[in-house]
Amino acid sequence: IGPGLGEGPMWWLMCAVGAIESVRFKQLGLAFEKLTTENAGDLGLRGFAPSSAEGMESMKMKELKNGRLAMLAVGGALTQGVAFGANHFPFIPQ
Fold first, then answer.
1. pLDDT top residue among 41 and 25
2. Which of 41, 52, 72, 82 could disulfide-pair with 63, CB 3.0 to 4.6 Å?
């Protein structure tokens, strides 16, 4: 079954990502009222960002599409788990 809640390396990864997301959540406001298409996916890391405005706009659109694809993938995995009675990863029918 593996480690329980609060154990293992994934727990520390979740804590680190949670800390980063909480800072981002504070920047965007409690109801995400400051979230726009201009600042979607922008964490202020400019090291690998495209230098042109068109490249930056293309990367923002890729970020939004990647998020949508990830939501579909999670929805499909959960649906498969419910349909086949597999309650944990990997969702293999029993």
1. 25
2. 41
Element (H, E) at 55: helix 53-84
**CA separation for the pair 50, 54 (Å, rounded):** 8
* CA torsion, ordered 20, 44, 53, 41, to nearest 10 deg: 10
Contact 42, 59 (CB under 8 A): no
Answering whether pTM is above 0.70, one says no
Query: Residue 45 to residues 48, 49, 50: CA-CA distances in angstroms?
Result: 8, 8, 11
Can you tell me the mean pLDDT for 30-42? 76
15-19, 52-56, 88-92: the lowest-pLDDT one: 88-92
The DSSP 8-state label assigned to residue 40 in this structure reads: T
State how far the alpha carbon of 74 is from the alpha carbons of 2, 26, 29, 42, 51, in Å.
Answer: 21, 26, 26, 23, 33
Give the whole-angstrom CA distance, residue 68 versus residue 50: 22
